[in-house]
Amino acid sequence: MGGFDGKVAVVTGASRGIGLAVARELVDSGAKVCVTARSAEPLAEAVRQLGGEQHAIGIAGKAHDPDHQAEVVETVIKTFGSLDVLVNNTGTNPVFGRMVDIEPRAVSKIFEVNVFAAMSWVSRVHAAWMEQHGGSIVNVASLGGLRPAPGIGTYGASKAALIHITQEYALELAPNVRVNAVAPAVVKTRFAEKLYAADEDGVAAHYPLQRLGVPEDVAAAVTFLASDRAGWITGQTLLLDGGITLRGGV
User: Chain centroid to CA 88: how far?
Assistant: First the structure.
């Protein structure tokens, strides 16, 4: 896509799947990128795939850990000289089942990682760089945040919150910072494989485009929203669903 020469991005949850695809798209478009994830070893492999430390650095830690966030923001600005793009991609969903049966501890964990961590990242990045210099933030939400999804309702509720705070931040941080989100349907990743692995062809058959999403589909949309080409877009959630909602599906 281009247009990111001289720009610096942080992508959370980026050792694999959607996050790594987003980081790759940004690097290919000219950006320097910091990728984060919990484990150092897969993160090091991600950096290697991104072309090494000339193009990317990796910092391991839990996305909701304030010390980790502080380290990332400080290191990125010190290493690359700016922090122009934040992609909040980290997500968790440790439970499957009816919302009424989910234990409060699990609900707290989901919201801590999917919502509170994203809010904290925004606050830190804004205070450290974007308030003075501007920038773009993209939150990775979910189709489940826009309509009910049996079995993953609590996860969907957290993504609905993420969509709402996207709109709030778009108002609060304008005009210097744009804030948008993407809401994918089922994407072929390890994170989502329980939703399709038993019968991928059968699941895909419900989609008008006759296939599930792949990480590169999301990466292209995220990169567009983060770019200057989307310079008059803020507070929006781009639905990436292969047409499934046209048939009433999730």
Answer: 4
The residue with tokens 């920038």 is: 135
Structure confidence at residue 168 (pLDDT):
98
Helices within the chain (DSSP H only) = 17-28, 40-49, 66-80, 104-111, 117-125, 131-133, 153-173, 200-204, 215-226
> What are 184-227's pLDDT values in tens digits?
999 998 887 777 778 788 888 999 999 999 999 999 999 999 99
Contact criterion met (CB below 8 Å) for 173 and 228: no
CB atoms < 10 A from the CB of 57, how many? 21
Write out the catalytic residue numbers: 155
Q: Supply the pLDDT for residue 191.
A: 81
Q: Judge whether 145 and 201 are in contact, CB under 8 Å.
A: no
Kindly report the pTM of this predicted structure: 0.95
Q: CA-to-CA distance for 236 and 178, rounded, in angstroms? A: 10
| Distances in whole angstroms, Cα of residue 53 to Cα of each of 33, 56, 76, 147 | 9, 5, 12, 41
What is the sign of the dihedral through the CA atoms of 184, 56, 4 and 133? positive
Predicted pLDDT of residue 2: 66
Question: What is the rounded CA–CA span in Å between residue 35 and residue 49?
Answer: 12
Cα separation, 36 vs 206, in Å, equals 34
DSSP string, 108-152: HHHHIIIIIHHHHHHHHHIIIIIHHH-EEEEEE--GGGTS--TTB
Contact 146, 183 (CB under 8 A): yes
87/125 Cα distance (integer angstroms): 11
Instruction: Specify whether the CB–CB gap between 144 and 91 falls below 8 A.
Output: no
